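Lab notebook page, bench 4
Experiment: in silico fold of construct C2
Operator: M.H.
Input chain length: 134 residues
Purpose: comparison with the prior construct
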Amino acid sequence: MSPSLRRAAASLLAAAALLLLSIRAWESVEPLPASLSVMGKFWRAGTTTRLLNSRLFRRDPELGAALVARDRRLPLGADVVLTVPPSLPDAAAEEMRRKAAFVLAPRRVTLARGDTGRAEFSIAALPAVPAGPR
């Protein structure tokens, strides 16, 4: 078998394999117009929308919306206290604190237990500590 014939056979075999893989890939994904539509919605969405639709806040959108609102209003130097009800388990409270720390960075977020009213949580700026005499 001549080298040119071998090259032609290898090219034909590679092209057939590539065609078979592309057909299977095309069948396994959403139609192209649907994919392009989702891509367009993603890029048109703002940072806030992407954050609230992320896995981080999928189960707790109220917390995400409250954190985004506080992030806009509080100065970067203000520390924040996240108050949760005493009945909330420690693991869930710590998860909420970590989410708050992620969104409100570089502010420090501390966790407190107390009355939150009808809400599951409350977020407030820590009062500024008065400077002592120098």
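Observations: The chain is about 55% helix and 10% strand. The radius of gyration is 27 Å.
Next step: discuss at group meeting.
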